[in-house]
């Protein structure tokens, strides 16, 4: 059976294998604290937006995630 290659590993032309240690799929090197901002709408689903708590101000414009509030659950409730 063939070995399944690690997608973060690539072969060079000489056949040696190297590993990319800066792969973004490895995740952040530090914990990221998020702040939840809830916007309530009278005629639509309320929205919860997660933004980096300690990031630079421009991160609030570029690094965020929004979801309908009814789809967001407390971590302890989901365990």
Automatic annotation (TrEMBL):
Residues 34-79 form the DUF7511 domain. It comes from the Archaea. Residues 1-31 are annotated as: Disordered. It holds the Pfam family DUF7511. Residues 1-11, 19-31 have a biased composition (Basic and acidic residues). This is DUF7511 domain-containing protein. It comes from Haloterrigena gelatinilytica.
């Amino acid at each position: 059976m063939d070995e399944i290659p690690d997608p973060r590993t690539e072969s060079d032309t000489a056949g040696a294998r190297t590993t990319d240690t800066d792969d973004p799929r490895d995740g952040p090197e530090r914990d990221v604290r998020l702040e939840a901002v809830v916007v309530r709408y009278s005629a639509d689903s309320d929205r919860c937006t997660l933004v980096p708590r300690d990031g630079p101000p421009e991160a609030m414009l570029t690094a965020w995630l929004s979801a309908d509030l009814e789809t967001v659950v407390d971590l302890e409730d989901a365990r």
